[in-house]
């Protein structure tokens, strides 16, 4: 927890500063009036002191300070010296804002990412500004919700569903993660496909299952799924592939909702493509949230878009945990656990090149 005292002329003025610097989640610990001594009282009014506190999410995120300095250094060095010297705080703020806009970060999100800059001194170092933005990005992205961290009351198996629109990369992501868990992490893992809409979909997962030597079951109904999971009780994880469902097809979504409702112990990953227009992503999210609300997000196809902003927009507007990022078609290599620092570096990477 970070605690800070603010002194000012009015409560409103101080509250505005607290909101700007600590964010809207800050809590007020104490408000008191400070009387000026008698000689000053002739010239100035009494002041107010407010003590505010905010949870230090950065501490939980474990941002390594040395690493942070290194990255901030790398980013600010890209802005050449001459550019740096001529930049006032306001100009720097505009530069970063415009850069975020170019990356298709939504305006409201960009403003939130710049929070805290206004309270820096006018002659502050460019490092300080970038440090603030970098931290804000890391904080917004949060910690990754990895499959490894899934806790279930019954020890085995941990049941993981992958759901999402058609063609976003659900099956490919499952193949990549299966390879990671079975080959690298040496976990016992089985696959189930509930995607029986297309014969090709079964073959696609079967091919991966054979290459990776993991058992696969094809199921055609929810009772079969329950039975299938039971039969895999010697496994640590069961990954379940589902058919892509258009968020506009109410019937398909209802079916999925009923299937998910049958499993109280589960983890659900909603797979979304970074190439989808942000407005469409939001409408997909609304539809999927109505059928199951407690999911984490996997973002695919980041290699196919030049605008990195989608990721931070998604997190900001959904407040769902992010988990993995998929950046190509190669199984098993093109997937990674999301990392706020890496993402911040990528988002700010070409700063000043516009
Ligand atoms: N460029 C790129 N292509 C990807 C990525 N992930 C998946 N793909 C490709 O996207 C296409 C669809 O992938 P699938 O894994 O079959 O998608 P799906 O969500 O299972 O599709 P349905 O089951 O039909 O809903 C394939 O050609 C994949 O190779 C990625 O991160 N980047
Ligand atoms: Mg599929």
Task: Tell me what the structure shows.
By secondary structure, the protein is of the alpha/beta class. It has 3 domains: 2-55; 60-141; 147-338, Rossmann fold (3-Layer(aba) Sandwich), CATH 3.40.50.300. 46% of the residues lie in helices and 18% in strands. The chain contains 15 helices and 11 strands. The strands form 2 sheets. It has an 8-stranded mixed β-sheet, sandwiched between helices. It has a 3-stranded antiparallel β-sheet with strand order 1-3-2, with helices on one face. Helix 4 (65-78) packs parallel to helix 15. The protein is elongated and about 85 Å long. The two termini are 38 Å apart. The model is unreliable at 57-61 (pLDDT under 50). The structure holds guanosine-5'-triphosphate and magnesium ion.
Key attributes of the depicted protein:
eight-stranded mixed sheet, 15 helices, binds guanosine-5'-triphosphate, alpha/beta, binds magnesium ion, 18% strand, 11 strands, 3 domains, 46% helix, Rossmann fold, three-stranded antiparallel sheet, 354 residues
Task: Furnish the topology, listing elements before pairings.
Blueprint: E1 2-8, H1 11-22, E2 27-34, H2 38-41, E3 47-54, H3 57-61, H4 65-78, H5 81-85, H6 89-102, H7 107-113, H8 126-141, E4 158-163, H9 170-184, E5 189-193, H10 199-212, E6 216-218, H11 222-231, E7 237-241, H12 250-261, E8 267-273, H13 278-291, E9 295-300, H14 309-318, E10 322-326, E11 335-337, H15 340-349
Helix pairs in contact: 4-8, 4-15, 8-15, 9-10, 13-14
This protein binds guanosine-5'-triphosphate (GTP) and magnesium ion.
Guanosine-5'-triphosphate binds next to α9.
